[in-house]
Amino acid sequence: MNSSQLNRFDTSWFVVMTRPRQERTAKEHLAAQRFEVYLPVTGGDDPVALFPRYLFLRPGYAEQSLETVRSTRGVSHLVKFSDQLAVASGQLIESVRW
User: Fold this and answer.
1) For residue 76, what are the contacts with CB-CB under 8 A and spacing of at least 6?
2) Nearest-CA neighbor of 75 among 4, 8, 20?
3) Which helix (H) or strand (E) holds 72?
4) How far out from the chain centre does Cα 24 lie?
5) 19 near 76, Cβ under 8 Å?
6) For residue 57, which of 28, 83, 22 has the smallest C-alpha distance?
7) H helix or E strand, kind and range, residue 15
8) In sequence order, what E strands does 21-92 have?
9) Which of 3, 26, 79, 80 is the most exposed place for a label (fewest CB within 10 A)?
10) What is the pLDDT at residue 7?
11) 3-state secondary structure of 6
């Protein structure tokens, strides 16, 4: 993905499907690669994923490739519709956060 394509997604988040019960593992390993990662959780003392097996990410810097995502521990794949990556708007993510 080049920088002009990335600009279109500045406020959008890509949808990632994790391996079963691996949401936290995927989040930690993606964050270690400097992706901005959001895993919606619910509950108090023992939080659980709001959307089991799904989390959201966006590149941490303009030149960051998404190629490493699929081989990241805990990740199954980036969600696609046909040949287009699934994206969630920044507005949607903010509404889920609050």
Assistant:
1) 17, 18, 19, 53
2) 20
3) none
4) 12
5) yes
6) 28
7) strand 13-18
8) 36-38, 41-42, 48-49, 54-58, 75-78, 80-81, 84-85, 87-88
9) 3
10) 47
11) helix
Q: Please tell me the total number of residues recorded for the chain in this structure.
A: 98
Retrieve residue 51's tokens.
């959307």
At residue 10, the pLDDT reads 62
How far apart (Å, rounded) are the C-alpha atoms in residues 21 and 95?
A: 24
Tokens of 94: 């903010």
Which residues fall within 8 angstroms of residue 91, CB to CB, at 6 or more apart?
A: 11
- For residues 12 and 58, is the Cβ–Cβ distance under 8 A? yes
pLDDT per residue, tens digit, the chain (98 aa), is: 444 444 445 678 999 999 999 999 999 999 999 999 999 999 888 889 999 999 999 999 989 999 999 999 999 999 999 999 999 999 999 998 87
Single-letter residue type at 10: D
Asked if 6 and 62 count as a contact pair (C-beta separation under 8 A), the reply is yes
